[in-house]
Design brief:
The chain is of the alpha/beta class. It has 2 domains: 167 residues, Rossmann fold (3-Layer(aba) Sandwich); 279 residues, Aldolase class I (TIM Barrel, Alpha-Beta Barrel). It is 42% helix and 16% strand. The strands form 3 sheets. A 7-stranded mixed sheet has the order 2-1-3-4-5-6-7, sandwiched between helices. α9 packs across α10. The protein is globular, with a radius of gyration of 22 Å. The site of cobalamin has 37 residues, from α2, β3, β4, α5 and α7.
Length: 479
């Protein structure tokens, strides 16, 4: 059985977005290797399915170019990955695929589909939706389809059964992540994924060492998609890094994509010691972490093992807003983490959000003041957007979903919000005001950090002139 795993094109591939020059510019995203599809493909290959990964996004394919590739491979099953930002082209890909071959089986998975199965099955051409981690569920589904076996035994899916929607629940997170093969990077032109921005602008490969998160921030769906936190063994992580470096010599650094790389400190310590022992600390790496509980000793070891940048979700300086989003973090912990990280010689990036519940002009000013005083290596600002499966989504009116997710904004797109994703609009604000506020803050921080970041910007400009100029123009001249 032939299975095609698809990352659909960006929304600028379809009308009316395609005709909107301004919109086309604003929806560019940083494109990484689709680790989720890579893992699923590897498991399907282990089970003798003929698999192909088609990433229409990285290739900037139009819908027609994508369909040409699909017709060329002629799959019986198409698995489509869904993020809220690509849901429009995901459902359009399903529609076109069915028009090409009405018998092709369409399976949606990923963070959006996991939390919006009914809509996709009832209105948008899905035959199946897979919940959460797809590797073994998709394998079981493909086996059942191949053998024409009853679907009742396939746990973790929803599907159409005549006029009904059937849901087969199951607690299906993968208990031992080391039981998974490495993601099937070999099914893609992997070098295409290496030219993206990392801490030192070098060619980075993405590696995932853990899944899940024990926290439950109101704007984030990681916990509800991946359930319980699980880490891979240090040995297995380092073996994968060695394998990637051996197979793809262009790789110069590693980006750990975990939600919280440092959650299990003993495991991080072991990874670091192994990297040092094997001389792999000559490659730099970056990761995401939480501020609470950082310690100088571990940060020192991480630095020695090659860590160049840690990104922290600070979100807000207002205790009330932090409480509303369930961040479980206070400002003393943030100050401490940034200080210790910088002292260890590691860049500390801080991410802030504007527009969470309880936000006011006063709390925005409080966050800006705090960020200036905190002096992280850089501060990035985002408008709060609402994703399915989050606590914010439960607070957001259903009308907003219809308005933005399935009929997105095209009139006044912005660098700071995705046109297909609703923003959370606290009392006293609207979407436009939040974009303008974040745009002004980003400009302020760009100028404030220009002296310290001048060399980095220059390097970026030389290595990626078109992107850098486009970004600067959008950031400095427009909202
Ligand atoms: C790394 C990462 C990024 C990276 C790169 C992502 C990439 N590869 O292009 C960067 C930094 C660029 C990024 C950017 C953004 N990201 Co991001 N990112 C992540 C992160 C931390 C890890 C992604 C990952 O590799 N996961 C590991 C793999 C194994 O999981 P997976 O891809 O989800 O796939 C598994 C399942 O979902 C499922 N599955 C997925 N697809 C399919 C398809 C089929 C057919 C099946 C059966 C199953 C299936 O099975 C897979 C294997 O278990 C996740 C959070 C998370 N923990 O996953 C957020 C996350 C995906 N990002 C998110 C967001 C919002 C964004 C941004 C929009 C943020 C912003 N405001 O700019 C941008 C836009 C990204 C884009 N490409 O459009 C949200 C998406 C929510 C949503 N409903 O869309 C997430 C879930 C975090 C959150 N806040 O909740 N991101
Ligand atoms: S934002 Fe980070 S800490 Fe909060 S729930 Fe999501 S992954 Fe966990």
């Amino acid at each position: 059985m032939k299975i095609l795993l698809l990352v659909p094109p960006e929304i600028s591939a379809i009308e009316p977005y395609r005709s909107s020059k301004k919109l086309r510019d604003c929806v560019k995203v940083i494109k990484g290797f689709p680790l989720g599809l890579g893992y699923i493909a590897a498991v399907l290959q282990q089970n003798d399915f003929e698999v192909s990964i088609l990433n229409a996004q990285i290739n900037d394919f139009s819908m027609e170019q994508m369909m040409e590739r699909i017709r060329g491979f002629s799959p019986q099953v198409i698995g489509i990955t869904t993020y809220t930002a690509n849901i429009k082209t995901a459902v359009e890909s399903a529609r076109l695929s069915k028009a090409w071959n009405k018998d092709v089986v369409i399976v949606f998975g990923g963070p959006h589909a996991t939390h919006d199965h009914r809509n996709l099955l009832e209105n948008y051409g899905a035959d199946f939706v897979v919940f959460g981690e797809g590797e073994f569920i998709f394998r079981d589904l493909a086996m059942a389809l191949l053998k024409r076996a009853p679907l009742d035994n396939v746990k973790g899916i929803a599907y159409r059964d005549g006029a009904d929607i059937k849901v087969n629940p199951g607690d299906l997170y993968i208990k031992d992540l080391d039981s998974l093969p490495y993601p099937a990077r070999h099914l893609t032109d992997f070098n295409k994924y290496l030219g993206h921005f990392t801490h030192d602008l070098s060619c980075a490969a993405q590696v995932m060492t853990s899944r899940g998160c024990p926290y439950s921030c109101a704007f984030c769906s990681s916990g509800s998609t991946f359930s319980k936190w699980r880490g891979r063994r240090a040995q297995s992580v380092v073996e994968e890094i060695e394998f990637v470096l051996g197979r793809y010599p262009a790789v110069r650094s590693i980006s750990f994509m975990d939600d919280n790389f440092t959650l299990d400190k003993a495991r991080v310590e072991e990874i670091c010691r192994l990297l040092i022992k094997k001389g792999l600390n000559r490659y730099h790496w970056d990761c995401l972490s939480r501020c609470a509980g950082q310690d100088a000793k571990l940060l020192g070891l991480m630095k020695e093992a090659g860590c160049a940048r840690i990104q922290y979700g600070v979100e807000s300086a207002s205790p009330a807003v932090l409480e509303n989003i369930n961040k479980a973090q206070d400002l003393a912990q943030v100050r401490n983490a940034v200080k210790l990280t910088k002292n260890a010689g590691i860049e500390a990036y801080a991410f802030f959000m504007v527009g969470n519940p309880g936000e006011t002009e006063g709390t925005i000013r409080e966050s800006v003041r705090f960020a200036l005083e905190l002096k992280p290596t850089y501060a990035n600002w985002f408008v709060t957007q609402v994703y399915p499966g989050t606590k914010l989504a439960a607070l957001q009116g259903q009308d907003d979903w219809v308005k933005y997710v399935y009929a997105p904004e095209i009139e006044n797109p912005s660098l700071y919000t995705h046109p297909c994703v609703p923003v959370f609009t606290p009392d006293g604000f609207d979407r436009e005001m939040l974009k303008v506020r974040v745009s002004a803050i980003m400009k302020k921080f760009f100028w404030a950090y220009l002296p310290s970041n001048f060399l980095k910007w220059l390097k970026k400009l030389i290595r990626h002139p078109l992107y850098s100029l486009w970004y600067l123009k959008r950031m400095l001249l427009e909202n």
